[in-house]
Design goal:
The complex is a heterodimer of chains A (293) and B (430). Helix content of chain A is 71%, strand content 2%. Chain A is an all-alpha fold and 293 residues long. Chain A has one domain (61-288): MetI-like (MetI-like fold). Chain A is globular, with a radius of gyration of 23 Å. Chain A starts with 11 loop residues before the first helix and ends in a 7-residue tail after the last helix. Mean pLDDT of chain B is 90; it is low at 1-17. Chain B has 430 residues and is of the alpha/beta class. In chain B, strand 5 (130-131) and strand 6 form a beta hairpin. The chains are: A mainly alpha (293), B alpha/beta (430). Chains A and B meet through helix 12 of A and helix 3, helix 12 and helix 19 of B.
């Protein structure tokens, strides 16, 4: 007997998909198309005079030395945050997975930061690390470290990397914990009986089994660092000192909102969009083959 | 996103709660004030609403100055602009360039036979927001930079707390003494580097910031803030920073925190922070900005900051009339005086200033009078009327970034200012 339910209707699948498609169209495709259109325009802030300038905005971007440096900053920033998030979330998930007592409490504590808005997270870290009133900054100064994110570029970069990671670890943690719990106990036990020590069990069984999660999280973290970190930078370093913490998304904000250069800002966001799509496709094309489901 | 939702929600609530009777003309006013100052603004507007029955103003907070301006522009483009909007002073050139998008305030007043005594406005304020004889926007909240100093730190350092430094040479000596005596870890600090240590510094020393009367007489002025006076000042700041007497606390609110937590002996900021500083309960004084004695003509007068209120074009005749009466109400000496004494922003008219002086207000609050002395120090000239430069927010960002690069040793003072002039000129040309 056929156990699957079969629907003959040709319309129902589209109806089921419709809400998702409508939401994507309204909140993603339409604005994206507008951004592409705007990136070819040069206009004053009020839109009183508009001129179609072909690729002038794109040309201007690549003659802007700050843009090139912000690409470099974005790469360092994104890779650091992604790496920190993946490693620490995996360690935390591994630890939590082992304990029995008070699991819920630890879990909740680790998940908490995810509920915090990026701007709030930024303010929190700004206060802790501010040289004038920050407690941690005070401790570091007492320990002889000359901590000064207002003038030292590396310090500023470290500050936004830590603040951004802190917020995102929770997200990674949730997925890692779920995937660790999904690993059949029998597999680990069998390996243990065969004499595999915990390190071998980790590298040869656990890591391959959670690779789909890692793959998924890698993409999600990248998208997070590319698009969602603006609030943190806005509240901690404002892109400074100099331009040392101005990453691509922050530059889009500054050029669009502060400098009212709408065409240039639109062109930058189009490039950003293409860049992330490209990485995602690349990843699905090549890395996914190494992922075992 | 969340905050946006919240903002719309609260504004919707504000509209429904204050829903006026049917025939009343309702004005939407978008602003960028926050915290206690926003409360004072609401008080002022509520007073207006209660004072008559024909009009009703609804104030909607739209975030920071930048966000408010952006929201206003976006709304205008979507043909859903509010009736009134507050725009920070650096956005003035952008608003002026948008001819057709706004109604000049003086035209609005004459068209609607509403009273506004433009001659009564403080010259520095009037000059900033006027084009020729025409007042373009209503100077709702104007401020100017002043020097705050901590009296108890002065005492600890063996300095006279009633004699704040008058010149920069004195200031550097004072700062050195504060630091070396151990009275405080930081001699002096400054908020808003681009606004205070360059724009106002230039006006105060009677040197041009840009050509064509700082942009007042041309739309494409050339930047001139890399002359000897400014470069040597920045070089002095760099030296003081290296020696440890001057501490830089970033572009946000940290300088204020450093001062109110008694880390710094001296601090430069807007009069608008007077309320905050006072709330911290430290023993402080307010003094005029220092100047270099060897610069001829110094001190001249300071220029204003803060924001002004613009009326959008295309609103109905009824609403225009309401806006005119609202502005007329706001310009009354008692209303200005109350706003000044609560928020710390300047009393923008001579009559309101006189009104307070006669009441003996400044005997009890001498700190609030300092900025007025600075603005009226001399009759504003081409170098000190104010700046009218398109792209000024962007230029300020470049200046601040270059200042940081200078302090971190990447650029010399000369190079930092030359580079800012070069990049700034390119922005103005666009």
């Amino acid at each position: 007997m056929e156990k699957r339910a079969v629907f003959d209707s040709k319309i129902i699948p589209y109806l089921f998909l419709a809400p998702q498609i409508i939401v994507s169209a309204v909140f993603f495709f339409w604005p994206a198309l507008l951004a592409i259109w705007q990136s070819f325009l040069k206009e004053d802030a009020f839109g009183l005079s508009t001129e179609f300038v072909w690729f002038d905005n794109y040309k201007a971007i690549f003659h802007d030395s700050n843009y090139l440096s912000s690409i470099f900053i974005t790469i360092i920033f994104s890779l650091s945050v992604t790496l920190i998030c993946l490693v620490s979330a995996l360690i935390l998930a591994g630890l939590i997975n082992k304990i029995r007592l008070g699991k819920i409490i630890y879990q909740t504590l680790i998940i908490c930061p995810y509920a915090v808005a990026p701007a709030i997270a930024g303010v929190l870290w700004f206060f802790l690390f501010s040289p004038s009133i920050g407690h941690i900054a005070h401790l570091m100064t007492n320990a002889g470290l000359n901590w000064d994110p207002n003038l030292n570029e590396n310090h500023a970069l470290i500050l936004i990397i830590l603040a951004s990671s802190w917020k995102q670890i929770s997200y990674n943690f949730l997925f890692y914990l779920a995937s660790l719990q999904a690993i059949p106990k029998s597999l680990i036990e069998a390996a243990a009986i065969d004499g595999a020590n915990s390190f071998r069990r980790f590298t040869d069984i656990i890591i391959p089994l959670i690779s789909p999660t890692t793959f998924f999280l890698f993409i999600m973290n990248l998208i997070y660092t590319f698009f969602d970190t603006f609030g943190i930078i806005y509240t901690t370093t404002q892109g400074g000192p100099g331009y040392s913490t101005t990453n691509l998304v922050y530059k889009v904000y500054v050029d669009g909102i502060v400098n009212l250069n709408l065409g240039g800002s639109a062109a930058q966001s189009v490039i950003l969009m293409v860049f992330v799509s490209f990485i995602t496709i690349l990843h699905f094309r090549f890395v996914e083959k190494k992922v075992h489901y | 996103m969340k905050s946006l939702k919240l903002a719309t929600l609260t504004s919707l609530m504000a509209i429904s709660y204050n829903a006026p009777a049917f025939s009343v003309v309702d004005l939407q006013f978008w602003h960028g004030l926050s915290g206690q100052t926003a409360e004072y603004l609401n008080d002022m507007i509520n007073d207006f609403n209660k004072s008559q029955k024909e009009y009703h103003v609804t104030a909607v907070r739209k975030g920071s100055y930048q966000e408010t301006m952006m929201a206003g522009i976006a709304a205008y483009r979507a043909k859903k602009s509010p009736d009134l909007i507050q725009v920070y002073e650096v956005g003035t050139a952008t608003m002026m360039a948008a001819q057709g998008a706004i109604i000049p305030v003086s035209k609005l007043m004459t068209d609607n036979h509403a009273k506004l005594d433009i001659k009564d406005l403080i010259p520095a304020v009037k000059g900033y927001y006027s084009h020729g004889e025409e007042l373009l926007s209503y100077p709702l909240n104007s401020s100017s930079p002043v020097m705050y100093f901590n009296k108890s730190i002065f005492k600890k350092a063996g300095l006279d707390p009633n004699l704040p430094p008058k010149t920069w040479d004195e200031l550097f000596k004072y700062a050195e003494k504060i630091k070396t005596s151990g009275a405080a870890p930081c001699g002096f600090t400054s908020a808003w580097i681009a606004w205070i240590q360059l724009e106002n510094f230039s006006a105060w020393h009677n040197v041009p910031y840009a050509s064509n009367s700082n942009g007042m007489s041309s739309k494409t002025p050339k930047l001139l803030f890399n002359s000897k006076t400014q470069v040597s000042h920045w070089d002095n700041l760099l030296k003081a920073n290296k020696a440890g007497y001057f501490t830089y606390y970033g572009r946000t609110t940290e300088p204020e925190m450093a001062f109110t937590t008694q880390k710094c002996g001296i601090y430069f900021d807007s009069t608008g922070s007077y309320g905050d500083v006072k709330q911290s309960k430290i023993d402080f004084g307010v003094a005029k900005l220092p100047y270099y004695q060897n610069v001829p003509g110094a001190p001249q007068n300071t220029i204003i900051g803060g924001a002004s209120m613009w009326v959008f074009n295309g609103i109905s005749a009824e609403k225009q009339k309401a806006a005119a009466h609202f502005i007329s109400y706001l310009s009354q000496p008692e209303v200005i005086a109350k706003w000044h004494t609560t928020s710390g922003y300047l009393p923008i008219s001579n009559s309101s200033y006189k009104f307070l002086k006669n009441e003996g207000f400044y005997k009890l609050n001498p700190g609030l009078e300092v900025a007025i002395f600075e603005l009226n120090n001399k009759v504003p000239n081409d170098n000190s009327k104010g700046l009218r430069i398109s792209g000024l927010p962007e230029i300020r960002n470049i200046i601040e970034a270059n200042f940081e690069s200078m302090l971190s040793g990447k650029l010399t003072a000369q190079k930092a200012l030359d580079d800012a002039v070069e990049k700034g000129d390119a922005i103005i040309k666009k």
